[in-house]
Amino acid sequence: MISITLLYREGQPIGFHSSGHADYAAYGSDIVCSAVSVLIINTMNSIESLTDAKFSQSVVPADGEEENGEIDRVDYQLLEATPEAVLLMKSLVLGLAQIREEYEEFISVAVEEV
């Protein structure tokens, strides 16, 4: 199961912790893992490329091997949020909620105020 904890400050999403794998299907065919990965990576890349927000991130590859492209854990947090970065985080939250609605046995989403 993919476990995601959304981090909020004053009612606004400012980060997340993500770990695990959906195990919906065999490696290379897991649409749940793919969908979540695309949302997370696109959000992180968009915030970096399209905003002036300051952030911290940590990406831990599965089995410590970066070559295979599998990710075991991602920790991401806006340190200095901009309205644009918060909007992109809200988009991530919306996308994760939609995936959770359809595939609830493969993804858990929790909320933590920081």
Short description:
This protein is an alpha+beta fold and 114 residues long. Helix content is 35%, strand content 36%.
Q: How would you explain this protein's 3D organization?
A:
This protein has a single domain (2-113), classed as Alpha-Beta Plaits, CATH 3.30.70.1490. 35% of the residues lie in helices and 36% in strands. The protein has 114 residues and is α+β, with helices and mostly antiparallel strands. A five-stranded mixed beta sheet has the order 3-4-2-1-5, covered by helices on one side. The two termini are 24 Å apart.
List keywords for this structure.
single chain; about 110 residues; alpha+beta; Alpha-Beta Plaits; five-stranded mixed sheet; 2 helices; 5 strands; about 35% helix
Any chance you could write out the topology, listing elements then pairs?
Layout: E1 2-9, E2 12-19, H1 31-50, E3 54-61, E4 71-80, H2 83-102, E5 107-113
Parallel strand pairs: 1-5
Antiparallel strand pairs: 1-2, 2-4, 3-4
Helix pairs in contact: 1-2
Shape: globular
Oligomeric assembly:
single chain
User: How confident is the prediction overall: mean pLDDT?
Assistant: 93
Strand content: 35-45%
CATH homologous group name: Cysteine protease Prp
Largest sheet: 5 strands, mixed
The number of helical elements comes to 2
Query: How many extended strands?
Result: 5
Q: How many structural domains in the coordinates?
A: 1
> Within the CATH hierarchy, at the fold level, what is the topology?
Alpha-Beta Plaits
CATH architectural label:
2-Layer Sandwich
Q: Which structural class should the secondary elements be placed in?
A: alpha+beta
How large is the radius of gyration? Answer: 14 Å
